Amino acid sequence: MDHLSELYQAVILDHNRRPRNFGKLPEANRVATGDNPSCGDHFTVYLRLTDDRIEKVAFDGAGCAISKAAASLMTVSLMGKSVAEAENLFREFHHLVTTGEADEENLSDMAAFAGVSQFPARIKCATLAWHAALNAARGTGDKATTEEPV
């Protein structure tokens, strides 16, 4: 299990240091922000939707290593998904970070966040960009915040 923990830590560190899809997305047609005042995380998520499919997704902003790595992995995971598929992925990710239970048959880099469940305050960090992305995908543009229900 130590080897697996080291691998997961390496995934999080890599996505924090070299976030994928980081920066503004000029062709975005949906945008939403997320704010976690208790940790200082603040992200803007940009989506390019065609019909009901996420063609492109990017994010910018700043935050702790957990929030930045989670946002990076989120963008990779959402590319090409429908809004309904994105909502399902979020439910799976939320289950992972709140319980630590990973789907053994479908392990991906997102499983690196299983350890977040041991640090409840970090769950908000890991899910912030997801909440903003879902607000953007649904077309509400509402600001996601950890200080009130999203």
Mean pLDDT: 91
* Rg over alpha carbons: 14 Å
In CATH terms, what is the architecture? Answer: Alpha-Beta Complex
Major beta sheet summary: 4 strands, mixed
CATH top level class name: Alpha Beta
Shape: globular
Question: Helical stretch count?
Answer: 4
Sheet-strand content, in percent, reads 15-25%
Unreliable parts: none
Structural class: alpha+beta
When the domains are counted, the total is: 1
Strand order of the largest sheet: 3-2-1-4
How far is the N terminus from the C terminus? 34 Å
CATH topology: Sufe protein. Chain: A
- The percentage helix is 40-55%
Number of strands: 4
The ordered H/E elements are: HEEEHHHE
How would you summarize the topology of this molecule?
Layout: H1 2-17, E1 30-36, E2 41-50, E3 53-62, H2 65-78, H3 83-99, H4 120-137, E4 144-145
Parallel strand pairs: 1-4
Antiparallel strand pairs: 1-2, 2-3
Helix pairs in contact: 1-2, 2-4, 3-4
How would you sum up this structure, described in words?
The protein has helices spanning 2-17, 65-78, 83-99, 120-137, and strands spanning 30-36, 41-50, 53-62, 144-145. Strand 1 and strand 2 (41-50) form a beta hairpin. The chain has a single domain (2-142), classed as Sufe protein. Chain: A, CATH 3.90.1010.10. With 150 residues, it is an alpha+beta fold. 43% of the residues lie in helices and 19% in strands. The model has no long low-confidence stretch (mean pLDDT 91). It contains 4 helices and 4 strands; from the N terminus they run H-E-E-E-H-H-H-E. It has a 4-stranded mixed sheet, covered by helices on one side. The N and C termini lie far apart (34 Å). Helix 1 (2-17) packs across helix 2, helix 2 packs parallel to helix 4 (120-137) and helix 3 packs antiparallel against helix 4 (120-137).
